[in-house]
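Annotators were shown the component list below and the corresponding predicted structure, then asked to write short factual statements about the assembly.
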Amino acid sequence: MCGQLASEDYPQQLARVSAALAAAQTQAILGDITPNCGPGDVQRFVDNAVGERFRLISEELAFVALAFDGFDQLIERYLRETPRQTYALDQSDQERFLGWLRRTRVLAAKQSDFVSHQEAEYACLTKARENRAGHVAFQRVWTLSKQTQREQQVPANQEMQVNPIHIWSRMTIADAQSNQPSEDNVLFLAVGQEVRSLWLDAERITAVRDLTQHNPTTLAAWSARNRELTNRTQLCDELIAAGLVALART
Amino acid sequence: MLPATGYALRNENRPFADDPAWNAIEVDFLRACHPLRTEPLLTGLNFDYVSIHSLELSVCSPDAPDPHFLDALVEIARENRAVAITDHLGFTHGVAGGAGVGHVTAPPFTQAAFDATCRNIDHIQRHFGEFLFYAENLAHFFQWQGTLDEADFMIGVLERTGCGLLLDVTNAYANERNFATSAGDFIRAIVPAASRVQMHLAGGFFDDQRGRYIDSHSEPIPAEVWSLYEEAIALSGPRLDAVFIERDWNYPTEAGWRNEVHKARHLLDAAQAAAVS
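Structure shown to annotators:
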C-alpha cells in the first residue's frame, strides 16, 4: 500500500481502503494495488460485494417491496449511501435498510404498515436472540400443550404461560377492527422457527394484554379479571393454538 | 477414521448426507445461528467431523474481533458438536463497527498486517479454547502492494500462531489463473508449515470478458484442482483432518453430489494406501 501517505499506519490504511471499497470508490484505491491488477478487478470486487447485499435485501424484503414502486432503486440508493456494518449479529443489513426508509422517506400508511410488519418480525428475532433459553423452553412446553389441549379442556387452575418472544406493533390497516387507533394492535410472536402475527379486535387486545401483564396466570384468574370478555375458554384455546399461550407442565 | 470428507452443508445437498463417503460436514455460521432455532442445525445427521465456517472474523483487521461474535461462534460450535472453527486470512473492515468492504479480502502483505493478524489469531485461539482454529487462503479479486510474499506471510502466521491451515485448493488455482502465481509452489510452501490441515475444493469458470477465473462454486471441480489436491494430500500426511467440497450455485444432480465426494474420498484412500506401502 505505497500509494498513499508514507506516514500512514496499518489501521489508517485499512480504514481508508475499507471506506473506499464500501463506498464503491474504486478510483481511490488504484494507487494501492499491484500493477498486474486493474480498475476492472476492483470494480468486480465492488460489484460482487454490492450485488450480494442487493440480493439479500431484495429477497428477504420481497413482502415490503409490494408496497413500493421502484423498490430496487431504493435499495440501490441505500447501498450507495450506507456502508455495510460488520459483526452486526444484532441488526442485519435488511433491518438497517428499513430504518433508512423511515428516515429518508415519508411513507404512506400502507407502506408504513408493510415496514412495521417486517420490523416487528425482526424485533421478534432480536428478542429471541437475547432470550434463546426462554424461546427454546417455551416452544417445548407449547408443543406438549397442544397435545394436552387436544385431549381435554384447559383446567381452570392450570398455569398458563405466555410466549416470551412476542412484540406488539401498530398497523393502521387494523385500526378499523380495533377501534383503538392510538394503540399497538397486532401481536407478533415466534412459533417454532417462524414469526406469526395475531390480529385481534379491541376486546381481545385488552384480554391478551392482561394475559401478558399477569404472566403466568391461570384460566380462572384471567377470567376473573376479564369478566366482560365473552367466550374466554374459546379464546384461551385459540391463543394456545396460535402459539401465544402454553400450559405449564404439572 | 480421519481424514474425513464431505461438503459444506446446503439445503440442496442435505438429502445425500447419508452417503458413506460423506463423513465430515462444514456448517456455515450464519446458517446455523438463526435466533428462532429450537434445535441444532445438524439434528438428525451424524458426522465424524464437524467444522464451523465463518466469513466475518476479519482476522487481519488492526483490532481484535468482537467478543460477542466470538462467543456466538463458540455457541454454535458447541451446539453442533464441532471440533473446529475456520475463517479466512483476510479483513472485512478497517475499524471495528465501521464500514465493511462487503467481502472478505486479503490484507496488504506487510509486517504491520502480519503482526496484527498474528495478534488476532492468538486472541481468537485463546477465546475458542478447545476448538481448533484454521485460517483459509483467499482467491484475490486484486492484490494490494506490499512488502512480503503471500506464501511467506502465511507461513509466518502458521508458524507463529500454531493455528491450522484451511487450504482452499481452488483459491490457489484461481490466483494462478489470474495473477500467474504458481498454485503448486504456493501449496508446497505453506502446507509444511501448518500444524493441522483442512481443505476446500470447488469449481468455477473462466470469464472471457473479464479475462479472469471466477471462483463461483458453481461448477464441477476442474482436473487441475484435483491434481493439486492429490499433491496437497501427500504434503499434508497425517496432519490432514478434513476435506470439504463447496457448491453454492448451479447445483448438480444427486449423482453429481455423490460423485465428487466419492472422488475426494477415493483420492485420499489411495494416497493413504500409497503411504503405507
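Statements collected:
1. The radius of gyration of chain B is 18 Å.
2. Chain B has a mean pLDDT of 95.
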